[in-house]
Amino acid sequence: MIEVRFHGRGGQGAVMASRIMANAFVRIGQYGASFPMFGFERRGAPVTAFGRFDANPVREKTQIYHPDIVVVLDPSQRFFEKVYSGLKSHAVLVLNAALPFETQPHENLETAGIVNADQISIEEVGRALPNTCMLGAFAATTGHLPLESLEAALEDYFQGSRLKANVRCLRRGYEEAAVGHF
Question: pTM for this structure?
Fold first, then answer.
């Protein structure tokens, strides 16, 4: 089972990203579960969302304490200890940031995919909504999902010009992710 923990702030689309990802896993014949955890439900408040994906049915709906992958939508959280709490060994980080890390932020991180999702979404959508761009970076960094399944999943959440803009964000996130190993 792959366990993914999303860290963001209200309004960045962390919950939506975990739902779209679950939808994309189902489209490739896997099972997926997505669920959020809210503190204060307001724009800008910290938000954590969770996703579990497997070839077998996913029944567990609890928080993820030991993730395989951490997706950080909010660049200001990149240095927060809670983001890296409980990471399994050989973990993967997908990070929204303009600049890469100069040092390894946690000993269990093996791979990192970094993309400036805020800038891409501003260019494509008109404001900082990094979620779909981060999904593209997730696909490029992990190889767990084909880009086509994520594109198809977007159709369940967006339409018209919003769909086209989010597909562009997704593709650019995939193409512009700088993937490296620690």
Answer: 0.94
Q: Position 3: which residue type? A: E
Burial class (CB in 10 A: 0-12, 13-18, 19+), 140: buried
Length, in residues, of the chain: 182
Topology annotation, domain 2-181: Pyruvate-ferredoxin Oxidoreductase; domain 3 (3.40.920)
Locate the domains of the chain by residue range.
2-181
Read off the pLDDT of residues 78-111 as tens digits, 9 standing for 90 and up: 989 999 999 999 999 999 999 888 889 999 999 9
- If you search the block for the tokens 């809670």, which residue do you land on? 82
3-state secondary structure of 79: coil
* Residue 99 contacts residue 151 (beta carbons within 8 Å): no
**For 9, phi and psi rounded to 5 degrees?**
-130, 155
Specify the amino acid at residue 158.
F
Cα 32 to Cα 57: distance, rounded to the nearest angstrom: 8
